[in-house]
Amino acid sequence: xxxxxxxxxxxxxxxYMRDRPRRWPNxxxxxxxxxxxxxxxxxxxxxxLLLIFLIIPIALAFSLGFTDAKLSSPQPTRWVxxxxxxxxxxxxxxxxxxxxVRELAGPEGTVRTALRSLTKNGSxxxxxxxxxxxxxxxxxxxxxxxxxxxxxxxxxxxRNTAVFALVVVPVQGGLGLLLALLVNSRFRGRVFFRTVFFxxxxxxxxxxxxxxxxxxxxxxxxxxxxxAVYPSWDPIAFLADPSTALPAIxxxxxxxxxxxxxxxxxxxxxxxxxxLYEAAKMDGAGPWRTFTSVTWPGLRHTFVFxxxxxxxxxxxxxxxxxxxxxxxxxxxxxxxxxxxxAEGYGKQRIGYASAISFVFFVLVLCVALIQRRLTxxxxx
Amino acid sequence: MSILARxxxxxxxxxxxxxxxxxxxxxxxxxGPAGSAPAASGGKTKVTMWTHNAGNEVxxxxxxxxxxxxxxxxxxxxxxxxxxxxxxxxxxIVSAAASKSLPCLLDVDAPVMPSWAxxxxxxxxxxxxxxxxxxxxxxxxxxxxxxxxLGFYDAALGIVTRKSILTDNDIRIPTIDQPWTLxxxxxxxxxxxASGKYDYPLDAGTGWTGEWYPYAYSPLLQSFGxxxxxxxDFSTAEGVLNGPQAVKWGEWFQGLFKNKLANPKESxxxxxxxxxxxxxxxxxxxxxxxxxxxxxxDILVLPPPNLGKQPYIGAGSWQWGMSATCQTxxxxxxxISFGLQDKxxxxxxxxxxxxxASASVQAxxxxxxxxxxxxxxxxxxxxxxxxxxxxxxxxxxxxxxxKAAADIISGANVQDALNTAVDAIDKNLxxxxxxx
Lengths: 380, 436
Known about the structure:
The structure holds two protein chains of two kinds.
Chain A lengths: L1 H7 L5 H6 L8 H37 L18 H7 L1 E6 L1 H8 L5 H9 L11 E7 L6 E6 L2 H33 L5 H13 L2 H11 L5 H9 L15 H26 L3 H9 L4 H12 L1 H16 L3 H6 L11 H11 L3 H30 L1
Antiparallel strand pairs in A: 1-3, 2-3
Helix pairs in contact in A: 3-17, 5-6, 7-8, 7-11, 7-14, 8-11, 11-14, 14-17, 16-17
Chain B lengths: L1 H28 L10 E2 L2 E8 L5 H17 L3 E7 L2 H13 L6 E5 L3 H6 L3 E2 L5 H4 L7 E4 L2 E5 L6 E6 H6 L13 H14 L4 E4 L8 H13 L19 H15 L19 E7 L3 H8 L3 E4 L10 E3 L2 E6 L5 H11 L2 H11 L6 H6 L10 H10 E3 L6 H16 L4 H18 L5
Helix pairs in contact in B: 2-12, 8-9, 8-15, 15-16
């Protein structure tokens, strides 16, 4: 740093140097110290803000996660140790055969009444207070096996968040690149297309979500459009069906943010020197070869940036869910951030919400570190 | 770690920007938390009121009128109104309470009041008994034998439909004394469905979220014989919310949507009935105005069906309360007493379609006079109203029930959904020491 700095300063005449009051200590060691001091001074405001808005909240979330803090309660907050994390993360398989069902619920009892006798509050079993995450019950209802979880919603939210990220990251990134390549070529009206693709980005996510909720209705635009192409189409209320709600939100989210990543890709494309393309042309490379040998290597840094920003945005998905579905139907669109919000504000369980937030933070950190590791090896 | 390091400058920039914005905006909004520190201006002490009415023009105008008249009637206090959209109102109150900046005067949904009183957001009111005695019971919010809130009206639920639809389909018109039984109601829905004239026979109101779910659907649960919580001592929901009666309710309720008798995902405006796309609407007394305007004398207000035990509807609507931090109780008690004049109460019921607060108010207005269709709601409120469980656990119970009902609508296993809700409620009760 200091070397570049010294080299970059204009050369001055000796007389000029002598007239000026001395600002920099002469000895290099002192000079380093002074520079470091200045550096600290300049970063201080940023560090202060980071401490207040990033480090302290994370520390608070971590420590609140060990309490039963509530948003409003006359009761003092109590330390509850690991119980929030236990509730959140506990998951157990349970198989009840016919003999066990008879033992628990009598000869007439079903597997569900037997299960209830194990999970009921005050039952004293290891399954107390746990709920059904998934089940497979025999046709006669007399036996079955279950996955029980302390908080089934957490596992569903985790799965939804993962599905969302796994679809959105490649599709949105790839589509963004495709659009960037299209609007980067020379044709009339390309500024128009750039603007059109970018438009959804400047709209508020809340507004976009409300509009798309209308589009997805049973007599909404999407169903009518499909019906126009396939007259035999049976309209579905996309957001009311557990199997289509998440895909609908994914499609909307990709549409909303793809323009932003198109612009990033476009910026990357325009840093690739035109000479390389000329050389490729002279070597007789076709469009695909040009892309794999010139364009793609030139976009490596852009790729890392796009990958990281989409991943972080996808893992933090919240607004769409809060506006369009509130996590439903049947928890099919709940995400970790939405669950933390609903627990903390809706049910006022700040302690539990903090535990969710902290687990979420650790997961995102892991994903980010893994991504960094993978992309760094390619860098070298 | 390096990703974090790389993004730090950007994050810092964002935070700095937000701070700058907050600093700029601060001056404009400083009038908000005036609850604890009344500021004098022009000789009058300013008192802030928060209300949930931002989306309801007519009601807000009425509140504004009461306030203007009150401000002009004395020269000690000046009440200023801040209106919030209903959806975010409760969250705003909870956040304001956490930061100790509640306004002096605020409105509160009746079932939520015990929770706010228990959390020390509210202090009891002192209103002359002469004013409160004639009021309907659902209008007075009492908790621990103290009056914490008072409303200007009550609301009731009923089935709105058209006489011609029932007669065309050969369906008996139920009366308050002889409501439909479960079998009759099911048969009526099936007949209307079979007529093929409607998208759905019933509009249950699934497009509204939040408090509407427990307000509209827990009376159906109670009619089957279940309830949200055991009302004996409010310490468990076991056997009540997940007992055989509750499961019967859940399966019947789920069947409405599975058999396409009602739309599981309605739009929020609920205009399908007015457009003739549905035959019946399960809705509050506030909705009768538009329907009567559209269909005139053909409109009928029906009692809810008797699904087993007896018909039920909820009671208690929005009411006025005073924050615990309020330094000017005189202003709050004065404003509420001032608003309890018959002419204002009558305006609230006439213009909003809400139930008149007392018999004299009923006599004053036109809409709810004896013998009108609207007066059916008053009969329903007298005969079948059951307040939502008056426990500080109610907001949690309401959210839990809302989720269970939404899951049931979407096709969840009824017993599992109700068991999960019971576990959550019982755990919350234990965590809060039964709200003692």
